[in-house]
């Protein structure tokens, strides 16, 4: 006899996707995450498509994964989805050094980030308000 199944952490009208260890600083990734927070999924995808930030392609891929999870795993309507949450977490930091003049060295930090996107299905009446 195993332990009972863990309860679902999200609500029944939500789905989530997580991308871990993205090679960008959390500060830069959060700028792109702010761009899509609270928007309808179609508008968020369009914004990411035309964003000039390098990391926007990875964020778009994560958002598409969250949409696919909502559609296939939780039977949610794709047209009624909104980006409920998009948050960024710190991951590892690779530390390197660069040789400088007179036998010195300076540190280079190469940070990594985690990205979590939660999409939520909303009723059409809420959008009009």
TrEMBL record:
GO molecular function, one term: structural constituent of ribosome
One Pfam family here: Ribosomal_L22
Keyword set includes rRNA-binding: yes
GO CC term, one of those recorded: cytosolic large ribosomal subunit
Signal sequence segment: none
Keywords from the named record: Ribonucleoprotein, Ribosomal protein, RNA-binding, rRNA-binding
GO terms, biological process: translation
Top-rank lineage group of the source organism: Bacteria
HAMAP family: Ribosomal_uL22_B
UniProt similarity note: Belongs to the universal ribosomal protein uL22 family.
UniProt xrefs under PANTHER family: CHLOROPLAST 50S RIBOSOMAL PROTEIN L22-RELATED, LARGE RIBOSOMAL SUBUNIT PROTEIN UL22M
Role of this protein: This protein binds specifically to 23S rRNA; its binding is stimulated by other ribosomal proteins, e.g., L4, L17, and L20. It is important during the early stages of 50S assembly. It makes multiple contacts with different domains of the 23S rRNA in the assembled 50S subunit and ribosome.
Quaternary data: Part of the 50S ribosomal subunit.
Name of this chain's protein: Large ribosomal subunit protein uL22
Species of origin: Ahrensia marina
Phylogenetic placement of the source organism: Bacteria, Pseudomonadati, Pseudomonadota, Alphaproteobacteria, Hyphomicrobiales
Gene field: rplV
